[in-house]
Amino acid sequence: MDNVNTESGAFKTAVAQEVERLRVLHPTVDDVPGCMTVFDDFLKCNIFATQVRSIYRFGEMAHCSPKWNEFKFCMSTKRLHPEQRRDSWIQHRAEWWARRRLGISSENVWEKRTELLKDYPPPIPSQDSIGPLVE
């Protein structure tokens, strides 16, 4: 995910979209995960079963340093006012999601639509215009 230009307009647009989405998903301060939850995620990454699953699926051990960095970020926001902490967390996660969306991935199949398609779905033709189904 290092190949994303964080100064580009596409990145800034993606971050803005993610901030909007995360504000809806996490409307209150209590919806933001606590540092113990983040630390638990880091520990789960390091357990034997997770490492074996990663070796089986991807041919290499799981990379747990991003989860450690998440824990360090969480601890760095610990002294902030709860609302500032929520805003900081939302911005941090929005940037993470934007990098993931814009970076190279095997999941790059769809692009987010900004407008609805015109005349979709097509109207269902009436029975009279089709004619009888059984002759």
Backbone shape? extended
Count the E strands: 0
**What's the helical proportion of residues?**
55-70%
- Output mean pLDDT: 88
Question: In words, what does this structure look like?
Answer:
- The protein has 135 residues and is mostly helical.
- 57% of the residues lie in helices and 0% in strands.
- The protein has helices at 9-25, 35-46, 48-58, 65-76, 82-102, 127-130.
- Helix 1 (9-25) crosses helix 5 (82-102) and helix 2 (35-46) packs antiparallel against helix 4 (65-76).
- The model has no long low-confidence stretch (mean pLDDT 88).
Name its key features.
135 residues, mainly alpha, 6 helices, 0% strand
Give the helix/strand layout.
Blueprint: H1 9-25, H2 35-46, H3 48-58, H4 65-76, H5 82-102, H6 127-130
Helix pairs in contact: 1-5, 2-4
Quick overview of this protein structure:
This protein is mainly alpha-helical and 135 residues long. It has six helices and no strands. The mean pLDDT is 88.
